[in-house]
Design brief:
Blueprint: H1 3-6, H2 12-15, H3 24-34, E1 45-49, H4 55-60, E2 66-71, H5 76-86, E3 91-95, E4 107-113, H6 124-128, E5 132-143, H7 172-178, H8 186-194, E6 198-207, H9 217-225, E7 231-232, E8 238-247
Amino acid sequence: MSRVDETLFEGEHYLGKPADSTDKIITRRVELTKAISGFCNKDLKLLEIGCGNGATLLLMADEMKSCLGVDVFDHTAEFKKVKAEKGITNCEVQLKDIENEDLNEPFDRLICFEVIEHFNDDKTVKRFTRWLKPGALCAISVPNKWWVFETHGAKLPLLPWNRVPFFSWLPKFIHERFANARIYTKSRIKKLLEQNGFEVLEMQYITAPMDVLKESALKRFLIKNVFKNNTTGVPLLSTSIFVVARVK
C-alpha cells in the first residue's frame, strides 16, 4: 500500500480551511463549468462530491433545479450560514463516505473538484456512475503533475517544508511513496475515467489562481499579466486539469 493510500484525505484542501467562494480557484472552476454547453439547466439535478463548505455548489445553485453536496467532513454549519445569507433554497448537504455508502437517487450532472486524488481505490470513481443517469455530464478537476509545487504537500524525510519545488515531477513510484495525494497527467486522468464508465469530452489546464500569495503589487502584476485567464496552454502555469466527461 502506498503512502497515498494510507493518508486518505490528508491534503490541505481537506484538513485545512476550505476555500472561500471568492477565491479565484473556486470562481475559475465555476466559470468553466457554467461555460460547458448544456451543463446548466433549471430542470436538472446537480451532485457535488467533496463539497466542503459548499463554496462551489452555492455558486451553481441559480443555474440548476436542485443541488446536493456530499462530503466526509462536516462543514454543515458554514454551509447553512452562507445558504441563509444568500437566500438559497435548492441546495442541501449530506455527510457521506462515498467509498462505502450510496445515494438514494440518480443525478443529471456531477461536479468533483480536487477530490479523486484522495481515494484509496481509484476504482471508487466507478461508483460515480451509480449515482448518475446515462449520459450525465460531469466536470472534474485533479492536480496537475507539471505545476512547479506539490499542491497537497508530501511527507519528506529531513525536510520541514512539504512543498518542495518539482517534487511532483518525480516518477510515480517515488511520488506516491511520500505524497499526501495522487497527482495526474492528462493521459492518466483520461485513462482512469474511461476505464470506469466515462467518456472524456474535453480537457484543459486551469491557470494557477495564485490565491496563496498575499495581496501585493507582485500578485496583482502576475494575475494581470501571466495568470489572467481561466485556462492556459502552458502546463507549467497550471495547478489543475479540468475534465469534461459523460457517463457512457
